[in-house]
Design a protein that fits this description.
This protein is α/β, with parallel strands linked by helices. It has a single domain, classed as Ribosomal Protein S5, domain 2 (2-Layer Sandwich), CATH 3.30.230.10. Helix content is 39%, strand content 21%. It is built from eight helices and twelve strands. The strands form four sheets. Strands 6-1-5-8-11-12 form a six-stranded mixed β-sheet. It has a two-stranded antiparallel sheet with strand order 2-3. Strands 4-7 form a two-stranded antiparallel ribbon. Helix 4 packs parallel to helix 5.
């Protein structure tokens, strides 16, 4: 059949299936999620009208400045992400394309994923409370800490929760405030013994922090390179590996005494 067609006609006929395949690929759902900077919340203040940190059994202090935990927003586990979405995300500085399995547990339903993230947040809050009270030398039978943060899941707010508890109970230990009146943001998981771990989407979280007024960003040291990749101008990075290191860095930043690490 093609032998009876002119060369332009033959090329057109051959190109049609290729074009159809490309069009199908562009529209077909792919196993990726597209993420962007999400909300931030001041753990020293309120979230949706409710205090994020409530302490009973010990006096709390009036705080200044802000400690903002950061998030990313990703397309849902059941959302269709096309090739066009992936290409657009690769070239955008305010979005990131990640394998869906890196964002959500593989094979789980939306409800199961929501339950998983809620459980991760609960464990993170427990670890953050234990780490903060251990740092302060306070027994958790004497002090009760309640953490509430609506519509946020996962463990990446652990470091900021711990810092918020310490700031409300003890500040910098010498009557000052850990924030020094600044808006400080950050991210990082935390263990009960105060070790800070890496999280995902750090480059997007720095953008969310800068958008919401932060001038300092606490980042797990292992993720310095990621944080620097799209760092907004005017946002200072401080790498951390432990809760004590984070506190020491903030005190040094506030007082101007001692060294403040940088990425």
């Amino acid at each position: 059949m093609l032998s009876r067609l002119s060369r332009p006609q033959a090329l057109t006929v051959c190109a049609l299936p290729v074009a159809a395949l490309i069009a199908a690929a562009v529209c077909a759902p792919l196993p990726f999620s597209v993420a962007q900077p999400g909300m931030t919340a001041d753990v020293l203040g309120e979230n949706k009208g409710t205090p994020v940190i409530t302490v009973s059994g010990a006096p709390t202090r009036r705080t200044s400045g802000q400690l903002r935990m950061t998030t990313i927003e990703a397309t849902g586990p059941d959302a269709d992400v096309s090739l066009k979405d992936v290409i657009d995300g690769w070239f955008a500085t305010d979005r990131a394309v990640m394998p869906r399995d890196a964002v959500y547990p593989s094979g789980d339903s939306v409800k199961e994923i929501e339950q998983y993230n809620a459980e991760q947040m609960r464990k993170s809050q427990d670890a953050a409370t234990r780490a903060a009270l251990k740092y302060l030398g306070v027994h958790d039978k004497d002090v009760k800490v309640t953490l509430r943060l609506a519509d946020v899941g996962g463990p990446s707010a652990g470091l900021l929760f711990s810092l918020g508890i310490i700031n409300k109970l003890d500040g910098d230990g010498n009557g000052g405030d850990l924030t020094g009146g600044r808006t400080i943001a950050g991210t990082g998981t935390i263990t009960a013994d105060g070790k800070v771990g890496p999280v995902g989407g750090v480059a997007l979280k720095t953008q969310a922090a800068h958008r919401d007024g932060a001038t300092v960003f606490l980042v797990p040291k292992a993720e310095c390179a990621d944080a620097k990749s799209e760092l907004p101008r005017g946002l200072r990075l401080i790498p951390v590996t432990t809760l004590k290191g984070a506190v020491d860095s903030l005190v040094a930043l506030r007082t101007g005494k001692g060294s403040v690490p940088s990425c």
